[in-house]
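BUG: 3D viewer hangs when loading the predicted structure for this chain

Environment: internal workstation, default settings.
Expected: structure renders.
Actual: progress bar stalls at 90%.

Input used:
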Amino acid sequence: MNSSFVRNWERKRALGKKNYVMRYGLLLIGMGCVVLFSVLELANNGEIHYPYLLGRLLIFPTLGAMISGMRWEGNERKYAKLTGRSS
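C-alpha cells produced before the viewer hung:
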C-alpha cells in the first residue's frame, strides 16, 4: 500500500504544486461542484439563477484550491515520512 502511494504521489508531485492545485482543486473539485450544484438547481427549479451561479463560480473553485493545497502539504509530509526524503 505504501509503495502504491509513493508511486502515485511521485507522478502527481512531478506536476508541481501550482499545476496540482489547478488540476485537482480548481478544475476537478471546484468546477465539478459548480456543475453538480447547477444541474441540481436546474432539476429542482427548472432554471438556473445567475446570482447563485456567480457565487458558485467564485466560492467552489476557491474552496477546491484550498483543499487541494492542504492535500498537497499532507501528501508531501506522508511522502517524506515513507521515503526518508525531505519535501
